[in-house]
Amino acid sequence: MRELLGNLKTIAAGVGLPLALISGLFLQSCSESNRSTANTEGVDEDVAKAVYVAPGKHDELYSFLSGGFNGQVSVYGIPSGRLLKVIPVFSQFPENGYGYNEETRPMLMTSHGFVPWDDLHHPKLSRAEGMADGRWLFVNGNNTPRVARVDLTTFETVEIMEIPNSAGNHCSPYPTNNNEYILAGTRFSVPLDLAKGGMGDASLEEYKDKFRGSISFIKVDKDKGDMELDFQVLVPGFDYDLANGGKGPSGDWVFFTTYNTEKARTMKELGASQNDKDYLAAINWKLAAKYAAEGKAHEMPANYYHNKMDHGTHKATSTIKKKVRYLLPEECPGMMYLLPAPKSPHGIDVDPTGEYMVVNGKLASTLPVFSFSKMQKAIEDKAFDGEVNGIPVFKYDAVLYGEVKEPGLGPLHTEFDGKGNAYSTMFVSSEVVKWNVKDLKVLDRMPVYYSPGHLMIPGGDTKEPYGKYLVVMNKITKDRYLPTGPELVHSAQLIDISGDKMRMLLDFPTLAEPHYAQGIPADKVAPNSVKFFKLDQNTHPEAVKKEADASVTRQGKNVKVNMTSIRSHFVPDNIEGVQVGDTVIFHVTNLEQDWDVPHGFAVMGADNAETLIMPGATQSLRWVPKQAGVYPFYCTDFCSALHQEMQGYIRVSPKGSNVPIKFSSGEKKSVPPPNGGPSSAGMN
Ligand code: RUQ
Ligand code: CUA
């Protein structure tokens, strides 16, 4: 395989082969390697020690991998690669009822209606002084433009905000060094109707004149993390791909890669690959904020949802926002510049010192590194080469620090180790390449399997990388694991970067398609992890805090069941008086005040999901029985030795019957004290 790739490189080097052709060649090389068993090249014998986390011991780091098209975030322990949790964000999750139960359904509301899915690409940890602080994780929804916030005390999604004037929120979300702003750029430009708001109706032939991109400036509350769309910058109608914030000297700047500066609207594979250089856009976010504050912003109508989870009720509410402010770069001198960057660039990564901006040009044969101080000088000297829509374009040589020669094929992303080295993924030549940021010399190459997209070094996008490990996320899995039919898991690989040479440690399967990831030392997150919700702080309006208060009430065609659960019974567990044609809402409060004792609730025929209620919380399930009968309900989580006994019945009579509402917790059979948890009960 190495030989093959070598040949490939010689063929493609310098000639600027179209990506389709190169990847075609590459796929051939994949099937080549299918013939042999898994390739263990680069793996030495005692790597097991480096990743072994003994039973009962904890991992050194958390890592948060995006799930791509599953709309979720997966949490893995590093170095073991153990999957710790799946956090549903944009997707309904039957496992715990997220997006199904009444409390979380509003989280998935958008101006397009209820959208229970998205393509989640880039997790970014919140920051303090340029370092990940372990409080929140921000993620983007690429399809129906949204930004979400996960609270890392509960590992729950607590806020989702739709982004207006955007289509494909890929270039997102990028926090500045103290979360002053989260920046979110649109991937696709769309025709904007500044008078009526939102997307206008336009002929595709008018692309060049009417289509615009947008970059959203989302303010983050310092203490609570709540987001608010402050304003947008409306930018030329390119495709905006990825972004990253500066640090140190470049801390006031954020950089965005663009492609399709050709403004092609069809067959973009070719149309958007014509220009020898596209742009890296540089925006001074502080200056933009100043312009917006000083009245340079215009206002236009908008229509977008902002959904927030309340801490006390544990219920989400949606607010519909009707206005958005925007800045036009041509009216804001000094706010935005364009750096010419070869060639359909993807990732933009800023080194820990904040001086070097690395642009990963998918089709480029070199890896250009731009210099922030040269950029400052170029602004002073007006070293421009024309302008686009009033935005100055720098002369390439005036801002270029240098180029990494023959880095590999198909560079996509770069991260840093804090020792002056950079690591870049090469999609086409399937390798991670280590190079020195100062002298731009390639130092090492590690073949990876296969076709890496993003890579992540814990803290590798901050001013002080944690270093030590690198996780590379591969797009193609092929023969790495036992085959599971046509659909395979994706594969991440863990690489030790503590020495001069990279050392391959571990393959681990990932869910759906991870794009970016974030890693953080466990001690920045674990101590703040909530064990359970305090019942006396539960302000859910339908919560019942003791069994005596449980009730069943009818209001017209609606029947409301306010129920409690505790090991190992529900109150009430016998319910009568429901009729076909009624809508029943179960509000179930878990009375437990102990760690790791959720109760589930499911009722036969429920067409949505179960709910999984954490101790001290209330969740509500809507159920519309279709036929008369006596329906069992039960707890879905094996919570005690008598979990199988945790069940009840609800009687549904024909429409118009005269069975009155009646409920009880029966002649209770004696219930053992709540000590029957899995650890003490020997329930197997
Ligand atoms: S992008 S590799 Cu969102 Cu690179 Cu996926
Ligand atoms: Cu409660 Cu099983």
Automatic annotation (TrEMBL):
EC numbers: 1.7.2.4
Protein's UniProt keywords contain Flavoprotein: no
Gene Ontology MF term list: nitrous-oxide reductase activity
Superkingdom of origin: Bacteria
Enzyme class of the recorded protein, top EC level: oxidoreductase
Residues covered by region (Disordered): 661-684
Annotated localization: Cell envelope
Alphabetical list of SUPFAM superfamilies matching this protein: Cupredoxins, Nitrous oxide reductase, N-terminal domain
InterPro entries, sorted: Copper_CuA (IPR001505), Cupredoxin (IPR008972), N2O_reductase_N (IPR011045), Nitrous_oxide_Rdtase_Sec-dep (IPR026468), Nos_propeller (IPR041114), NosZ/Cyto_c_oxidase_sub2 (IPR051403), WD40/YVTN_repeat-like_dom_sf (IPR015943)
Keywords: Copper, Metal-binding, Oxidoreductase
Pfam families: nos_propeller (PF18764)
Gene3D superfamilies for the chain: Cupredoxins - blue copper proteins, YVTN repeat-like/Quinoprotein amine dehydrogenase
Name of protein: Sec-dependent nitrous-oxide reductase
Organism: Pontibacter populi
Gene that this sequence comes from: nosZ
